[in-house]
Amino acid sequence: MKDPKEKADFLVAQFCKHSRADDTISPKESAKKCALINVDQTIEALDVFNYTGTWYDDYYTGQMILTEDKDPSEYWKEVRKHIEKL
User: Residue 30 contacts by C-beta under 8 Å, 6 or more apart in sequence?
Assistant: First the structure.
């Protein structure tokens, strides 16, 4: 998994490629807004489904991992902070 800053840069870059901006907002600012929406929705979904304390299959290692000691939304909150700084 990418660290939060790398993830923030990646999301904004991806949205820059696909966003439409009018004369009142730059493509980068438009992309940042889109990325923040994405992150906020991810955090909301993790909170709604109470993802902490559940098992998941780690894509990179193939191992089952318990999120008991981790709150996945903390990662996304860090990503949000880095997007806001861009």
Answer: 15, 16, 19, 20, 21
Identify whether the C-beta of residue 6 lies closer than 8 Å to the C-beta of residue 77.
no
DSSP 8-75: HHHHHHHHHHH----TTS-HHHHHHHHHHHHHHHHHHHHHHTT-TT-EEE-TTT--EEE-TT--HHHH
Query: Looking at beta carbons, which pairs linking 30-35 to residues 24 or more positions away fall under 8 Å?
Result: 32/83, 32/84, 32/86, 35/8, 35/11, 35/83
Residue 31, token pair as written in the block: 């992309």
- pLDDT digits 0-9 by tens, 21-42: 677 888 888 889 899 999 998 9
For 47, phi then psi, to 5°, come to -70, -45
**Alpha-carbon span 78 to 6, nearest angstrom:** 11
